[in-house]
Amino acid sequence: MKLIIEYIKKYKVTYIGVVLIFIVGIILGICVTFKIPNNEKTEIKDYIQTSINSLKENNINKQSVFGKTFVNNLKFLMIVWILGCTIIAGFTIYILMIYKGFLIRIYSNSYTGDFWS
User: CA-CA distance, 24 to 111, in Å (whole number)?
Assistant: First the structure.
């Protein structure tokens, strides 16, 4: 436990930077939801709502969805890890974090219904 705390203290600036970049992605997602046309908003909302309703109605194999999601997140983690071993990691990892924040915000907008009117 002490090693983990020391590690976090040592790389505190890096963690703060990644969190700030993630927040930038969320803010970009908010800005995009304000700027995209209404027909595209409804398409995105309908697509996500259909997926959510299918999960609620058990029309989708939950184990299959979990497996695909796990594999996709594992791929993302492996890309970040491999890029961490190279010199292009600093730039690319920040781009990936912006992308993740952007997607989370778009998904949350369609799920909660805010910013879609």
Answer: 20
DSSP code for 11: T
Element (H, E) at 115: none
pTM: 0.65
Whole-number Å distance between alpha carbons of 80 and 74 = 10
Q: How many domains, the chain?
A: 1
Cβ pair 44, 110 in contact under 8 A: yes
Could you count the other beta carbons within 10 Å of the beta carbon of residue 83? 16
Domain of residue 13 covers 2-31+61-112
pLDDT tens-digit map of 92-108:
778 888 888 888 887 77
